[in-house]
Amino acid sequence: MPKIQTINRLKGFRDILPEDWYYWQFAISTMEELTLSAGFERMEIPTLEKADLYMRSVGEETDIVGKEMYIFDASKMGGGKDKKKDKSESLVALRPEFTAGMVRAFIENGMQTWPKPITLYTLGRCYRHENPQSGRYRELSQFNVETFGEADPAIDANVIALVWDIFRKLKIPDIEIHINSIGCNECRPKIKKLLTDHFKKKQTKLCEDCKKRLKKNPLRILDCKNEKCQPIIAGTPVAVDYICEDCKKHFMSVLEYLDEAGVPYNLSPNLVRGLDYYNRTVFEVTTEESKRQNSLAGGGRYDYLIESMGGESTPAFGFGIGIDRVVDYLQNNSVKIPKSNSKVNIFMIQLGDEAKKVAIKRTRELRELGLSTGMAIGKDTIKAQLKAADKVNALFSIMIGQREAVTNTAIIRDMRDGVQETVELEDLNKRIYTMVEERIKEEEEYGKRSKLKNLK
To answer: Is 357 a residue whose pLDDT tops 50?
Structure first.
């Protein structure tokens, strides 16, 4: 019989195995915890949108739209020949980033009438058909934060400070925040002319992509990652020296607020970010390791995007964190992450057919009481099942063997210190419920004392 060929995952996509998920869980829970505590609310947006949404917002000359978007002609997919198609929705795209979709949701759901500022966050998968390499995937996970309706420079600094707090809580010690101002619509023409005049003198030394950028948007050249262009970019006139007085005042205020908050930063005069909708403040977060690739996070102000998409003029500021890159950093640098609190209250251990019947019944009863209860059916030994209970960090285990099944008893084992007690089956549910409640309260009190100790 011929060997059956296996099917492998697509290039640029990845599997997240259970031992890796602990890092993902730590990263995501840390980001959500700090963002929620800062007053942001979560929302969800579709993975699939009209392709025009990204072409109009991100910019047709950007690499994302020009090279990396997954675009589909929906009119040629599914349904019969007689099925009517909405031509306006024929060209669709998997989202390559979040901000455009958040802006579309802001306009479509009438958020302009909500009290300002509106502070939102979301997370999920994005898709870019780029060349897969270390730190770059075609399916990537991103955490996004957006603030709508406030132009105050304190917003910029407050959100950047949130990013700083997130990375410190993630135990990434060598992060650097790079910040710049790329001006507003009033001073941008002068900056573009300055850059065009500069790069025209050196265009023969530019890569082919940058030669095209020179005609369309010379600011894009500053974001080029091609080694050939780096010496030319290094000698570029500092654009921040040519921004208007209002933009200078805004930028200086942002820096002053960051200084006051104790958030360190590096002034990076050639930083522009890779999307066309940014204005004024832009920033990126890197580490010594990530400098060779892309940043771990980045964002900035986009005061004109909502109006350009058909909404009312609304200032906005936001950022995105690449979750994949954060997790890769944690794993590559063997960062010790805190042991997660148990999500399994009880682990049911059984030995023998009669014990298994009792254990399955009791497991269902305990789950109905709201106690998360796991089992390892198929494990033949008590030792193997205790190992499974320890792996999921269970608080207690309940052991029912052949003897216990006959005597209508069960053994409760404290997984923290190994202390055991035998109880009657009729008293089991009440006893274990009380023990779990006491343990949870004990851990909460310990957590509160630890926080107070750190404050002192």
So the answer is: yes
